[in-house]
Amino acid sequence: MQLPEPRGPVTARLVEELVRPPHPLDAPPPWSGEPAIDDEDLQLALFVCYELHYQGFDGVDDGWEWEPSLLALRARLEERLERALARMVPRPPVPAPRDVPRALAALVEEYDDGPSLSAFLRSRADLGRFREFVVHRSIYQLKEADPHTWAIPRLLGRPKAALVEIQADEYGGGRPGRMHAELFRATMRGLGLDDSYGAHLDRVPAVTLAISTTMSLFGLHRRRRGALAGHLAAFEMTSSRPNLRYSQGLRRLGGDAAARRYYDEHVQADAVHEQIAAHDLCGGLAAGQPHLTGDILYGAACALALDRLFARHVLDRWRQGLSSLRSPLPDAVAAAASGAGAGRG
C-alpha cells in the first residue's frame, strides 16, 4: 500500500517523515477544530499510525512501528478519538454478568431503528452506488478479522476458545481462497474495482476511517479488550440480515455467484457467530471478569453508533445526488464493470 495523500497539516508532516529512516518526530502541528469523528486529518493520521501494525506501507521502514515519538503522537490522536466516542456514545446501563447476552440483544434492537442502508442497496441502488458502498467497506474488509484477532492472547478459557472459533471461520478454516478478505476481493473484481489492499484509501471520508480506527483502538490496547469483544458481538449480531439484502441487491444488478459469495457466506456464518459472540465470548468474559461488563456493552454501542453514522452519511449524500466518496469513481471504470460480470444497473 502506498502512503496516502495528506488531508491536513498532521498527515502532511507524518507522510513527509515516514519516507525517511525512523527518527524522533517533532511536536505535530496544531489540531483542527473539527470533531474527531469528522476530522479528515486526524482520522487519516490515526489510520496511518495503526496501519504500521498491520501491512505497513511501501517505502516505509518497519522500524517506525515502535518509534517512541510516533507512539506518542498516536496516543494524542487516540485521546481525541476516545473523547469523541465518549461524547457521542452514552455508556449503556451495566447488567449483571449473566445478563450480558440479553443486554447485547436489547442494544442491537434499540439501534435497529436507524437508516437502512442495506434496504436501499437491496431495492433502489444503481450499480454506481453499490460500487461506492463496496469501496467504503474495502478499507476494513480487506483485512477482515485482523483487528479483533488482537484479543486472542488477552483472553483465557471459554472466551478465548469462542473467539478462536469465530476467527477460524473468518480466515477460511486454513484455506486461503475461503478467507473472508479474499471472498471480498472477488466481489470487488466482479464490480470492476481495484481489489488491492488499501487501493481506495484516498477516496473514503473520515467517517469510514473512524470505523476502522475505532476497531484498532480497541484491539491494540489490552485495557480495551472488553470493548473489543462487545464490538465484535455487535458486528456479528447485525450481519446476517444486511448481508442477505446486499446479496439480493447485487443479484438484482446482475452480480454473478462469485461476486455475491462474500455476502452469501456471511448470511450463514454470522447467524452462528452471533450466538457464539454473545454467549460464549461476551457472556463468558463478563462471567470471568465482571469488571469488564460495562466495557463490553460500551464497545457494542460504539460499533452500532458508528455504523449508523456511516449509513446516514452515505444515504444523505446519495439523496442529494452526490457521491458518498471524497472523489467519485471514474465513469469509465463503472462502464467497464457493467460488462465484466456485474450486469447492468
From TrEMBL:
A Pfam family per the record: Haem_oxygenas_2
Domain of life: Bacteria
Name by which UniProt lists this protein: Iron-containing redox enzyme family protein
Natural source organism: Microbispora corallina
